[in-house]
């Protein structure tokens, strides 16, 4: 018996060490970027355009570009994602069509981001003549973030107790009225959490925007949805691989701003979740 | 009456949106297929699939997939070999061993890792990990398959950890209790009872991890050295399928053979990830039962 106890102790210590091996690099990565990047962040860095072959100045156009892309992505993916999740949870019967939708969602979530980039390029940029533009980039990112939004919305809808629907229907409400007034309001927090999370992923993606929207160097703000924009992830890629003698400080600072933006969005989703969880009453 | 019409419209939209999701997958496949077929009109499928040289700008150009496929395969095997033991081990620790306050801290840290954009990890690979490995292992260059594998393993960890953790937690408590009743220690119950019962879920975690690694683009493009030759070890520069598309698309002339060849590579990637995700989905559904 003692031998078994000792073995248990050893095994748990090994598992603990493995976990440390996972956790420590995460902390080190964040610290490394913060330590090397924080010094270069200033008001000017955040609000000025890059100068002198991007070796000086700030990253303002890239920040604005990324925010525009986040908003564009949301405009397309949010309605479509929520509606199709409502279909799956509230309307769908268990038939071939429904199974095909579910299979499609699973499949969409696994498609590599660069394949989305190719698809966005050939469909939106070339076939539909949008050109490399905000419109093409947002649509590409929107399709990519659909599966996460659908899955999150589905879970949120499914977590609303079934009795809510029964009561509403028994009072003579139609199916849409039931969904609209008795299910959706209670699912909103879950939907928001999932949406913000998926948008934060989209904000950090580089491959899908490579050929659909990202501009190498464009120190002005876009005038229409058919303009190109700079974007933070692509800008970091460019300055760390294509610009010789780039001051590392600025690359680190760009990485830090990107991480901060993504974390901020994650934080918003965590706060939303915590806030609504407290209010939940069933 | 007005209400009825608006209701009809919204319900139609709901049904249509389900259809649109299917349409997206189908049209992604068809668009990739259309452009790939343009290549196969002038370049044989056989030479593409089994060709040993990827020389897109030589005369005549060669579009052999093998070096790129092996590049992806090597990097993926390396990443998964590192990622799976670490991921499943820490999932076991988080699910079964850690006290609850620690559990929350660990899970948040894993979520933080999931949020770091891949381009940032690629950048860290260039400025730190590549040079570090070059010195530590006395390599000619730090921009090699191993650097890619390590970073990709790191990136795939959140996927592997969270899905294996769900699988471990999903094993009915009664299984463990029965083992304890027979005098098993917590470790014996975990190793001999819980882990085998969670195996479907863990296989799904591994499959999804593979899908994530094989499809990752920016990290491999930035750190693996971009050399489209048949790799013999992880310690030399190589190039994956994803990095080839991302790196060469900008240089091609729209409508050229080279352009279509990149879509054919995309089609292969699409098919591979389709199969991987399909298997993972089956495993997940089995795990839920």
Considering the chains and any ligands shown, give keywords for the structure.
heterodimer, A: 282 residues, two-stranded antiparallel ribbon, B: 289 residues, mainly alpha, two-stranded antiparallel sheet, 12 helices, 78% helix
How many helix segments of chain A? 10
> So what's the overall shape of chain B?
globular
Low-confidence stretches of chain A: none
How many beta-strand segments of chain B?
2
Q: Largest sheet of chain A, order of strands side by side?
A: 1-2
CATH topology of chain B: MetI-like fold
User: Level of helix content of chain A?
Assistant: over 70%
Q: Pairing-aware structural class of the strands and helices of chain A? A: mainly alpha
**Rounded radius of gyration of chain A (Å):** 23 Å
Strand content of chain B: under 5%
Helix content percent band of chain B: over 70%
Main beta-sheet annotation of chain B: 2 strands, antiparallel
* Rg over CA atoms of chain B: 23 Å
H and E string of chain A? HHEEHHHHHHHH
Oligomer: heterodimer
Amino- and carboxy-terminal Cα gap of chain A: 46 Å
Q: Based on the coordinates given, report the CATH architecture of chain B.
A: Orthogonal Bundle
Quick one: CATH superfamily of chain B?
A: MetI-like
Low-confidence stretches of chain B: none
Structural features, described:
The complex is a heterodimer of chains A (282) and B (289). Chain A has 10 helices and 2 strands; from the N terminus they run H-H-E-E-H-H-H-H-H-H-H-H. The mean pLDDT of chain A is 92. With 282 residues, chain A is mainly α. Helix content of chain B is 78%, strand content 1%. Chain B is built from 12 helices and 2 strands. Chain B has helices spanning 2-42, 45-50, 66-97, 100-115, 118-137, 145-169, 173-181, 186-197, 199-215, 218-223, 241-248, 257-288; strands at 54-55, 62-63. In chain B, strand 1 (54-55) and strand 2 (62-63) form a beta hairpin. In chain B, helix 3 (66-97) crosses helix 9, helix 5 packs across helix 6 and helix 7 (173-181) packs antiparallel against helix 8. The two termini of chain B are 46 Å apart. The interface between A and B is large, with 87 and 82 residues.
